Amino acid sequence: MSHIKISIEVEQLFLETEKASQGVPHTQIRLMSSVVFVNQNKRTLSKPYSGILDTGAPITVIPHSIWKDIYVRKLTKRYLSGINPEKQCKILCDIGGILLQLVDENDNRSSTFPCLAYLVPAQYDTVPLILGVDRCLDRFKLEVNFVTQHAYLIYLSA
Amino acid sequence: MPVTDPLQELYDSVDPSVFESNYPSSERQKADMLWVRTHREELAQYEGKWIAVYNQQVIASGKNGANVQKRALQKIGYDVPDLYLRFLEHSTCVY
Known about the structure:
The complex is a heterodimer. Chain A is an all-beta fold. Chain A has one helix at about 65, and strands spanning about 5, 5-15, 25-35, 50-55, 60, 70-80, 90-105, 115-120, 130, 140-145, 150-155. In chain A, strands 2, 3, 4, 5, 6, 7, 8 and 9 form an eight-stranded mixed sheet that branches. In chain A, strands 1-11-10 form a three-stranded antiparallel sheet, with no helix packed on it. Chain B has one domain (about 25-95). Chain B has helices spanning about 5-10, 15-20, 25-40, 65-75, and strands at about 50-55, 60, 85-90.
């Protein structure tokens, strides 16, 4: 079984409060994994990209700058929305199939697997790569210890 | 009529030898990834933008990742297949 090391990205913030003399320390932590995709030419793999592991995201999200070069099969269209569900905040995206592997800095890699992804249009390129659950994270056992800052994905499903 | 899984069809359409092939990667690129991970506070000015990082320096940034990569490669002057390109999400984002 492949153990893929997850990177724990930490950002220390200081949130100012209404009282000038007070502030709230805030530690922002994200779990990140490196990802490679099968390229559009179907003969090579892409360079590694950093993706946010988001167990709250039902589907993977890929910005245009990444998916324009990889092997994609567009399947349908669907609106994508975030915290504001208003119609003007929804983005119509293609949903497509992609082929990817999760990899780490020690050259461990999962098997290649297909997953569904929102393919964000070019005009909305200011989004990160988000690794969601459906047919992506649900293929792995996720082990996270925030205290020791050790985290792994263990590939389970073919 | 049997239902086919388009994702399985997608998988079957690629020669499996591709899955075992090497991908563009180097010690420099791994160091660049680590540098971004450990310098998030210093990179706050780039939140909401793509950055291209080479030798632990941001060499291009902007709102369109493809353009950032293009400008970065022009600056370096030669092709770097594993140039580290990353979108830096805002610290206010919930994802």
